[in-house]
Description:
The protein is an alpha+beta fold. The chain has a single domain, classed as 2-Layer Sandwich (Alpha-Beta Plaits), CATH 3.30.70. The protein has helices spanning 24-34, 57-69, and strands at 9-18, 38-43, 49-55, 75-84, 93-96.
Amino acid sequence: MQYNAYMFTEIHCRVEGKVQRVGYRDFVGQFAKMRGLTGWVENKDDGSVELVAQGIPDELKEFVEELNEGSVLAKVESVAVSWRTPEERFDDFEVRYHRQT
Length: 101
């Protein structure tokens, strides 16, 4: 999908609540891919989920609404969103898995 450089933007989010071990990352990844967004999502050691998503503002606004809803088993308490200009472009949306320390 081609975007006008002026329309393309990025969000950085930290999601808190019961968002680990409930399929939240997979939920985020599926919705992002459905909307043609690029970026990544990963669990943090503090129990939150962090993500970066890139796309056009209207799609990102809908994406943030879905982040607040979450997966069926998730209980989202808060979503902190920072809008910014992308420093790098992602080719796809990656669900990052790593072992927690």
